[in-house]
Specification:
The complex is a heterodimer. By secondary structure, chain A is α+β, with helices and mostly antiparallel strands. Helices cover 49% and strands 15% of the residues of chain A. Chain A has ten helices and eight strands. In chain A, helix 3 packs antiparallel against helix 4. Chain A starts with 6 loop residues before the first helix and ends with a helix. By secondary structure, chain B is an all-alpha fold. Chain B has one domain: Up-down Bundle (Four Helix Bundle (Hemerythrin (Met), subunit A)), CATH 1.20.120. Chain B is 84% helix and 0% strand. Chain B contains five helices and no strands. In chain B, helix 3 runs antiparallel to helix 4. The chains are: A alpha+beta, B mainly alpha. The interface between A and B is medium-sized, with 21 and 21 residues.
Chain lengths: 237, 126
């Protein structure tokens, strides 16, 4: 169809095609779940890389039907959905698809075999330990290389940080603060979730001498029903 | 489970739309192929007026198909047919038998080749 396309429209076509593909990929990535972005498993990484490449071809080349880019992207999404469903259901599939975590340091000693098997160099290991604030390998009881490539470290009991529990301190329960106002907008859903109502908010505004909810930039309520807020910059002046 | 349900819907959609488009492509290219054969026969017996009429009809039909086909096949193939068809029209207008017949032969090959290229066969998959 290049014959009937003017040069000015050509750019517009690339623009629209890019928007369509962009929306499609963002939607698919959202459906694939939150796990995708942070810690990619081998199969997920492959899917992400291929999707990016597949989308780029019909984006720039208007001679190719958009469908020949969309169909393989959808197919990969289906493949990924089926694989993640299978690995959710079966332990064996999980082992095959994602592998299993490997213990790299056991009781303060580096497991050389495992290190070689995972092609993880001593430098990598020491670097990872430093990132996790561990300077001495002997302080580590276990270091486990997770399937997503992260290193988890379990310190020796003597080297673990002191907890309140160890010192017999009775800490007050803090619970979860609930956000009530963002940028001058009251979130009614959260208000009822906190077991409060509009009268309570109005009362708190009066106590704090605030004219309206609109003047508040951010406000939340703590577990023991204390109203905490920050005014908008324009209100502070 | 939600992902799996979406996947199933997409699979059904892809298979249905894929089958329908292949069928449509086949039917439309066959009808164009028949028209080209008709033109060829008219040219053989030097009925240029008839050939002119059929080529006009073919052009109209092609203009209709040209609206859907770009969504399904490589646009280069469509450009190829468009160029060859306009060349054919010019040759028929000038009653150039050799050139007209050679363009018709090329167009007929294209009409067979396009649905073949899109059809669901092992050669295309590999």
């Amino acid at each position: 169809m290049l014959l009937s396309i003017d040069r000015e429209i050509f750019m517009l076509i690339v623009f629209i095609r890019t928007i369509i593909l962009f929306i499609l990929i963002v939607a698919l990535m959202r459906i694939m779940g939150k796990r995708q972005i942070g810690q990619l498993q081998a199969s997920e990484l492959v899917v992400s890389l291929i999707i990016a490449d597949l989308a780029a071809i019909p984006m720039g080349n208007v001679g190719i039907p958009l469908l020949s880019g969309i169909v393989p992207i959808l197919t990969l999404f289906i493949g990924e959905a089926v694989l993640s469903y299978i690995s959710l259901r079966s332990q064996t599939a999980r082992k095959i698809l994602s592998g299993k975590p490997s213990i790299i340091i056991s009781k303060g000693k580096i497991v050389e075999n495992e290190l070689n098997k995972q092609r993880f160099s001593i430098d990598d290991l020491v670097e990872q330990l430093r990132i996790k604030n561990v300077s001495n390998i002997e302080d580590v009881e276990y270091a486990i290389l997770e399937t997503g490539g992260n290193l988890s470290i379990i310190l020796k009991t003597a080297k673990m940080p002191v907890l309140k529990e160890d010192l017999n301190i009775n800490a007050k329960y803090e619970g979860l603060p609930i956000t009530l106002i963002i940028d001058g907008v009251l979130i009614n859903e959260n208000l009822s979730a906190a077991g409060l109502n509009i009268n309570w908010i109005n009362n708190e505004l009066k106590i704090n001498k605030i004219a309206s909810v609109k003047d508040i930039f951010f406000a939340f309520v703590t577990n023991d029903k204390v109203f905490k807020y920050q005014l908008k910059e324009s209100q502070k002046r | 489970m939600k992902q799996l349900a979406y996947s199933l819907i997409i699979v059904i959609l892809i298979i249905t739309v894929g089958t329908l488009t292949i069928k449509m492509l086949k039917k439309e290219s066959e009808s164009l192929h028949d028209l080209f054969t008709e033109i060829e026969n008219s040219i053989y017996i030097d009925e240029w007026e008839k050939a002119k009429n059929i080529v006009k009809e073919t052009q109209n039909q092609w203009d209709k198909y040209k609206k859907i086909w770009p969504m399904l096949i490589d646009h280069l193939e469509i450009d190829n047919v468009t160029v060859k068809l306009s060349e054919l029209q010019a040759y028929i207008l000038n009653q150039d038998k050799t050139e007209s017949l050679s363009k018709l032969a090329a167009l007929k090959v294209l009409m067979k080749h396009i649905p073949e290229k899109e059809s669901f066969i092992i050669q295309n998959i590999l």
